[in-house]
Sequence to fold (106 residues):
Amino acid sequence: MTEDSIPAGRPGWQPSHPGEALREDIFPALGLSVAEAAGTLGVSRQMLHRVLAERASVTPEMAVRLGKLCGDGPRIWLAMQQAHDLWRAERALADEVARIPTLRPV
Fold:
């Protein structure tokens, strides 16, 4: 991996999936079970389970719902998902991206 492809700050640090924060911190602090949270959010328990198990991404629609429930708006949830996804993509594609030249205007 080249220096250009490693995120600034903590190159070895993997950003958490939003499902981890929901599962480990948010829902317990709110006293919500998965079934209660799903009902309140207006989504299926299965969909919420997939997010909590980190098998599904937080979509913009889910981010709007979570942002309202938690009172922090949707952007934080999308930013968490984007950081997680980008970290994984940079590492998965590192060898391939290293072969792509960086072109500069002449």
Summary: The chain has a mean pLDDT of 92. Helices lie at 18-30, 34-41, 45-52, 60-70, 75-92, 94-98. The chain has one domain: 17-98.
